[in-house]
Protein backbone atom coordinates (compact mmCIF):
# COMPACT_ATOMS: atom_id res chain seq x y z
CA UNK A 1 0.00 0.00 0.00
CA UNK A 2 2.91 2.36 0.70
CA UNK A 3 4.06 2.06 -2.92
CA UNK A 4 0.55 2.74 -4.24
CA UNK A 5 0.17 5.84 -2.05
CA UNK A 6 3.66 7.10 -2.99
CA UNK A 7 2.98 6.64 -6.71
CA UNK A 8 -0.42 8.30 -6.34
CA UNK A 9 1.14 11.33 -4.64
CA UNK A 10 4.00 11.59 -7.13
CA UNK A 11 1.62 11.42 -10.10
CA UNK A 12 -0.55 14.16 -8.57
CA UNK A 13 2.48 16.34 -7.88
CA UNK A 14 3.77 15.93 -11.44
CA UNK A 15 0.41 16.75 -13.04
CA UNK A 16 -0.79 19.56 -10.79
CA UNK A 17 2.69 21.00 -10.29
CA UNK A 18 3.32 20.98 -14.02
CA UNK A 19 0.06 22.80 -14.66
CA UNK A 20 0.88 25.35 -11.95
CA UNK A 21 4.31 26.00 -13.46
CA UNK A 22 2.99 26.23 -17.03
CA UNK A 23 0.07 28.49 -16.18
CA UNK A 24 1.56 30.70 -13.48
CA UNK A 25 5.21 31.03 -14.57
CA UNK A 26 5.96 29.85 -18.11
CA UNK A 27 2.92 31.33 -19.86
CA UNK A 28 3.29 34.85 -18.41
CA UNK A 29 7.03 34.88 -19.15
CA UNK A 30 6.52 33.65 -22.71
CA UNK A 31 3.75 36.21 -23.27
CA UNK A 32 5.93 39.03 -21.98
CA UNK A 33 9.07 38.14 -23.92
CA UNK A 34 8.03 36.40 -27.12
CA UNK A 35 5.91 37.36 -30.09
CA UNK A 36 3.35 34.78 -31.29
CA UNK A 37 5.56 33.37 -34.09
CA UNK A 38 8.03 32.25 -31.40
CA UNK A 39 5.68 31.78 -28.46
CA UNK A 40 3.27 29.31 -30.06
CA UNK A 41 5.95 26.84 -31.26
CA UNK A 42 7.60 27.10 -27.83
CA UNK A 43 4.37 26.25 -26.03
CA UNK A 44 3.73 23.39 -28.43
CA UNK A 45 7.15 21.92 -27.64
CA UNK A 46 6.62 22.42 -23.93
CA UNK A 47 3.30 20.56 -24.15
CA UNK A 48 4.91 17.84 -26.28
CA UNK A 49 7.33 17.23 -23.41
CA UNK A 50 4.80 17.58 -20.59
CA UNK A 51 1.69 15.84 -21.91
CA UNK A 52 3.20 12.31 -22.02
CA UNK A 53 3.94 12.78 -18.32
CA UNK A 54 0.32 13.80 -17.82
CA UNK A 55 -0.91 10.65 -19.60
CA UNK A 56 1.33 8.55 -17.34
CA UNK A 57 0.14 10.47 -14.29
CA UNK A 58 -3.52 9.98 -15.22
CA UNK A 59 -2.98 6.25 -15.61
CA UNK A 60 -1.07 5.98 -12.34
CA UNK A 61 -3.64 8.09 -10.47
CA UNK A 62 -6.55 6.00 -11.71
CA UNK A 63 -4.89 2.64 -11.04
CA UNK A 64 -3.47 3.55 -7.63
CA UNK A 65 -6.55 5.54 -6.58
CA UNK A 66 -8.91 2.66 -7.19
CA UNK A 67 -6.41 0.18 -5.77
CA UNK A 68 -6.22 2.18 -2.55
CA UNK A 69 -10.01 2.58 -2.47
CA UNK A 70 -10.69 -1.11 -2.99
CA UNK A 71 -7.86 -2.56 -0.88
CA UNK A 72 -7.22 -0.08 1.93
CA UNK A 73 -10.78 1.18 2.25
CA UNK A 74 -12.40 -2.09 1.10
CA UNK A 75 -14.68 -0.09 -1.19
CA UNK A 76 -15.94 2.10 1.65
CA UNK A 77 -14.63 5.61 2.11
CA UNK A 78 -15.67 9.04 3.26
CA UNK A 79 -17.38 11.61 1.10
CA UNK A 80 -14.04 13.35 0.45
CA UNK A 81 -12.69 10.24 -1.31
CA UNK A 82 -15.73 10.07 -3.57
CA UNK A 83 -15.47 13.78 -4.38
CA UNK A 84 -11.75 13.40 -5.03
CA UNK A 85 -12.44 10.47 -7.35
CA UNK A 86 -15.14 12.35 -9.24
CA UNK A 87 -12.98 15.43 -9.67
CA UNK A 88 -10.11 13.25 -10.85
CA UNK A 89 -12.33 11.67 -13.50
CA UNK A 90 -13.50 15.11 -14.64
CA UNK A 91 -9.87 16.26 -14.84
CA UNK A 92 -8.92 13.19 -16.88
CA UNK A 93 -11.82 13.85 -19.28
CA UNK A 94 -10.80 17.50 -19.66
CA UNK A 95 -7.22 16.47 -20.38
CA UNK A 96 -8.32 13.86 -22.92
CA UNK A 97 -10.41 16.50 -24.71
CA UNK A 98 -7.48 18.95 -24.57
CA UNK A 99 -5.16 16.31 -26.08
CA UNK A 100 -7.46 15.10 -28.85
CA UNK A 101 -8.94 18.47 -29.91
CA UNK A 102 -7.18 21.80 -29.27
CA UNK A 103 -3.68 20.35 -28.82
CA UNK A 104 -3.89 18.44 -32.11
CA UNK A 105 -5.25 21.53 -33.88
CA UNK A 106 -2.50 23.67 -32.36
CA UNK A 107 0.11 21.22 -33.65
CA UNK A 108 -1.31 21.17 -37.17
CA UNK A 109 -1.50 24.97 -37.33
CA UNK A 110 2.03 25.46 -35.95
CA UNK A 111 3.43 22.82 -38.31
CA UNK A 112 1.78 24.63 -41.22
CA UNK A 113 3.24 27.95 -40.04
CA UNK A 114 -0.28 29.36 -39.59
CA UNK A 115 0.26 31.25 -36.34
CA UNK A 116 -3.05 33.18 -36.50
CA UNK A 117 -4.93 29.86 -36.77
CA UNK A 118 -2.89 28.36 -33.91
CA UNK A 119 -3.59 31.18 -31.43
CA UNK A 120 -7.21 30.29 -30.55
CA UNK A 121 -6.22 26.68 -29.91
CA UNK A 122 -3.50 27.78 -27.50
CA UNK A 123 -6.04 30.06 -25.80
CA UNK A 124 -8.40 27.09 -25.38
CA UNK A 125 -5.57 24.96 -23.97
CA UNK A 126 -4.80 27.75 -21.50
CA UNK A 127 -8.43 27.84 -20.31
CA UNK A 128 -8.59 24.05 -19.98
CA UNK A 129 -5.32 23.95 -18.05
CA UNK A 130 -6.56 26.75 -15.78
CA UNK A 131 -9.74 24.76 -15.12
CA UNK A 132 -7.81 21.57 -14.42
CA UNK A 133 -5.37 23.47 -12.22
CA UNK A 134 -8.18 24.69 -9.98
CA UNK A 135 -9.75 21.23 -9.90
CA UNK A 136 -6.34 19.67 -9.20
CA UNK A 137 -5.64 22.02 -6.30
CA UNK A 138 -9.07 21.35 -4.79
CA UNK A 139 -8.60 17.61 -5.27
CA UNK A 140 -5.16 17.75 -3.66
CA UNK A 141 -6.49 19.61 -0.64
CA UNK A 142 -9.32 17.07 -0.31
CA UNK A 143 -6.82 14.22 -0.53
CA UNK A 144 -4.70 15.69 2.23
CA UNK A 145 -7.34 17.16 4.55
CA UNK A 146 -10.70 15.82 3.43
CA UNK A 147 -11.23 13.48 6.36
CA UNK A 148 -10.91 16.50 8.65
CA UNK A 149 -13.11 18.75 6.51
CA UNK A 150 -16.04 16.48 5.66
From TrEMBL:
Which InterPro entries does this entry report, sorted A to Z?
Answer: Cu-R_CopD_dom
**Lyase keyword on record:** no
Q: Which Pfam families match?
A: CopD (PF05425)
Instruction: Report domain Copper resistance protein D positions.
Output: 45-142
Q: Can you list the GO cellular component terms from the UniProt entry?
A: membrane
Query: Coiled-coil annotation: which residues?
Result: none
Instruction: Give UniProt keywords alphabetically.
Output: Membrane, Transmembrane, Transmembrane helix
Superkingdom of this entry's organism?
Bacteria
Q: Does the keyword Transmembrane helix apply?
A: yes
Q: Which residues cross the membrane?
A: 6-26, 46-69, 81-100, 128-149
Per its record, how is this protein called by name? Putative membrane protein
Q: Name the source organism.
A: Thioalbus denitrificans
Amino acid sequence: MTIAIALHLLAAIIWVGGMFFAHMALRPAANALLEPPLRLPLMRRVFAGFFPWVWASVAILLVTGYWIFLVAFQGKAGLHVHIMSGLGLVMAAIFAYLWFAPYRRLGRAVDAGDIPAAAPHLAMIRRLIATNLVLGLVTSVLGGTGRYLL
